[in-house]
User: Fold these one by one.
Assistant:
Number 1:
Amino acid sequence: MSASPIAVVTGGAGFIGSHTVDKLIELGHRVVVLDNFSTGKRANLARWLDARHRFDGEQPALEIVTCDVAHGIFAALAAITTKYGPVERIVHLAAQVSVVASVANPLVDMQVNYGGTLHVLEYARAMGVKKVAFASSAAVYGEVSQMPVGEDTPTKPMSPYGIDKLASEFALDYYAAVHGVATTALRFFNVYGPRQDPTSPYSGVISIFADRAKAGQQLVIFGDGQQTRDFVYVGDVVRAIVAAVGDGNSRAVANVGTGGEITVVELARTLVDLCTGAAAPRAERSGIVHAPARAGEILKSRARVDVLRDRFGVVAETKLVDGLRATLADH
Ligand code: NAD
Ligand code: UD1
C-alpha cells in the first residue's frame, strides 16, 4: 500500500478534534495530532494507539505530538515529516475555548487563538500544504436581530474570543489571497455530543445538563430559559470539517449549524424526559431551577445553512433527540 497523505489536526485530543481524528483515519489518512492537553485528553484517542492500527505494518495511523500552537508548529512536525513525507492538509481546532476566560485574559486568548492560527498559516505557506480548515465560531456575529444568521450578516463580536476568531478568519483570507494557501473557515454554532467535557462551569450546556440529569441532580437554567441556540451534533460537524479540509473550495466561510433552534428550557425538559421516561412521576425526575441570566448573553441563535449545503454538500441531519440519546449514553 502506498503511503497515505498526512493530515494534521491541531487540538485533536479535544471534543471535536478526537471525533475528527476518528473520521480521518477511517477514511485512510495518517493523522498527526498537535495538542498541549490543556483541555484535551489522550483517552479520547486511545482506540488508535494500538499497534494494530498501522499502515504497511510500519507507519502508525496516528502520531501525537505535545505542542503549544502559540509557539509554532515547525519543530513539532519536523521529525515526522522527515520520516513519512509532507503534511497535505491541516484541520486547525486548537484553541482556548472559553468565552468567559477570554474576557478575563484577552492576551492569552490572542496568543493562542489568533497567534496559533498565524503559526499554522505560516507553516502551510512555507510547506505548500494543500488545504487548511479552521474552527471559527458563531461568536463572530455577536447579537443579531434577524434570524437565521447568514454569513453575510455584519460581524460584531462581543468578546476577545469572538474578536480573535474573526481576526483568524481575516488571516486565512489574507494567506489565501496573497500566498495562495487554500483555506476555509467554519463558523460552528453550539456543538454537542459524546466526549464533551462537562466539568467546567463554562462547559457546553448539553454536557452539563446531561451529566446532571443522568445523576438525578438539578438543572440550573440561567435566566428565564427562553433564549435559543442552534445545537449541532458533533458527527455532523465532523462531516463539515472533512468536506472543508478535502475541498479545493478556497476562501469560503460557512456556518455549521442545523438551521433550527430550541429554547434552553425546552432542552432541559427533553433531557430530563429522556433520563426518566416522560411518564415518570415528577418527584423522581431532576428538578429544573432558574438562576440569574448570564451577563452579555445573546438571546437568539440560529444559523442559515445554505452555504454549507451548496458549497460543501453537507446538511446536519442528526435529530436533536437522537444526538441527546448518544450524548447521554456517554455520561
Ligand atoms: P476542546 O477544549 O475539547 O478542544 C480544544 C483542544 O485544543 C483541546 O484538545 C486542547 O487541549 C487543545 N489546545 C488548547 N490550547 C492549545 C494550545 N495552545 N496548543 C495546542 N493545543 C491546544 O473544545 P472543542 O469544543 O472541541 O473546540 C474545538 C474548536 O472548535 C475550538 O477552536 C473552538 O473554539 C471551536 N468551537 C467550538 C464550539 C463548541 O460549541 N464546542 C463552538 C464554536 C467554536
Ligand atoms: C457556545 C460556545 C462558544 C461558541 C458559541 C457559538 C461552549 C461552552 N460555548 O456559547 O464557544 O462560540 O456557542 O454559538 O460550547 N446555560 C444554562 N445553564 C447552564 C449552562 C448554560 O442555562 O448550566 C445556558 C446559557 O446561559 C446559554 C445556553 O445555555 O443561554 C448555552 O450556553 P453554552 O453552552 O455555555 O454556550 P454559548 O454561551 O451559546
Number 2:
Amino acid sequence: MGPPGAGKGTQAKGIAEAYQIPAVSTGDIFRAISKADAATASELALQVKEIMTSGGYVSDEITNQIVAERLGQADAAEGFLLDGYPRTAGQVEALDAMLAANGQRLDGVISLEADQDELVARLLKRAEVEGRADDNEETIRKRQQVYAEQTADLLRIYSDRGLLVAVDGLGEIDEVSDRITDALDTHLNRE
Ligand code: ADP
C-alpha cells in the first residue's frame, strides 16, 4: 500500500520475483480493460477508462469481483502479492472474506512511504516517460485526495492486526527493494 507515485508497481514486480509469486495489480488489470480498442470496447471498458482518467476509484463491486477471479487462478494458489488493493474499507472486508473462503491469510502488508512533493514530481516525470492518461497535474491531485480520504486510514487496520511493514520509499529503486525484502524477512521471521 502507499500513495499514488510511491512506487508500488515498480516494487511489486521485484518482490514478486524475489518470492516467486505473481503480482496482482488492480491498476494494471484496469489499464488493460480500459485499453480494449474502440470497436470492441465494452460498457465496462468505457466506464473504467472514464473513472481512471478522472482519478477516482473503480467501484468496490467491480474491483472485488476482478480480484476474486484473479486470486482463483492456479498460479495464485501458493501465494501472491497484491498491488493497489485493497483501497477502501469495503475492499478490506471483501478481501478478508475471499481469503477465509480459500483458507488463506495475509503474511504482511507493506506500506511504502514517501512525501507529497516528491510524489507529484515523480508522477509528472512518469507522465513524460510513459504517457499514462492519469498522470497529469489535475488528476494527480485528485488521486492524492482520494487516497487521503479513502485509503490512508486503512493502514491502521493492518497495523492493529500486527501486519504492517512500513518502508521508506525514497531513494534508488534497488535501495528501496533491499529495504523492503529486509523488512519483510524480519517481519516474516517474527511470525
Ligand atoms: P496509482 O496508485 O499510482 O494511482 P495504480 O496503477 O495503482 O496507480 O491505479 C490507477 C487507477 O486504477 C486508480 O487511480 C483507480 O482509478 C484504479 N484502481 C486501481 N486499483 C484500484 C482499487 N483497488 N479500487 C478502485 N480503483 C482502483
